[in-house]
What does this fold into?
Amino acid sequence: MRIATWNVNSVRQRMDGLQAWLKERQPDIVCLQEIKCTDDAFPREAIEELGYNVAVHGQKTWNGVALLSKLPFEEVAPGLIGDNADAQARFLEAIVSTQSGVLRVVSLYLPNGNGSEDKYAYKLNWMDRLIQFSHERLKLEEPMLLAGDYNVIPTPLDARRPEAWVNDALFLPPTRARFRALTNLGFTDAIRAVSDEPDLYTFWDYQAGAYQKNDGIRIDHVMLSPQAADKLVDAGIDAHVRGWDKPSDHVPVYVDLAIEAR
DNA sequence: ATGACAGGCGGGGCCTGA
It folds into this structure.
């Protein structure tokens, strides 16, 4: 099975590229972030025509996550535990049934955290909630993927110019410590499981020719539970998509697991 | 040091993003 994640930066603006990429990469499950629309406004039919079931957790204007799956959803649950008053649509969990049992998938859009102390506090709190959620789900001992835009540069190897990010919420020590906490719980960063190469990026700013200079950062991640990591065959980044017309500033990341869909 | 792009909203520029 192939599972992918992509921050599309508005799904309605990205339909041509999304449809082209789905046909090219042929993922079985896709986690989308920053769809920037309500559930009603999501272009559901065009994606269903390509053979996907669609689950959406959207909101007006900002944020919003979705899941696309060629297998039917057994369960779908929006929202991250730990704060019932959190109105930002950043988390969508689902279960599908495969030939060898259940597969649990989360599409997540972790807060950026720049701009104010309140925003950084929200980011760190959201990460603490994600760690708590992950700790609880690990007890199920299921193959599970936490995939999405983490807004975390895990190490200096994950930025072309790490010195430019030292005071940024994406790279500050408390941010990186919480990301490490996920790996310490037992999660595997799929890309780093298959490559120690530098210059593996998933985001290039629209400004100042960042993509042409390969001035990128790796902030979109697929984290695998032990039972999913045991099935890991390959992982990759579709960086070429950043060169398409009307691109998102993020590109897709995918993993191949040795699990038969059905 | 600053601005540079892009999208949403809504019909102005402003806010947000990373």
Remarks:
- Chain A has a mean pLDDT of 97.
- Residues 9-10, 13, 34, 36-37, 60-62, 112-115, 151, 165, 168-170, 203, 205-209, 217, 219, 246, 248-249 of chain A lie near DNA strand B (CB under 10 Å from a C1').
- The longest strand of chain A covers residues 101-109.
- The domain at 2-257 of chain A is CATH 3.60.10.10 (Deoxyribonuclease I; Chain A).
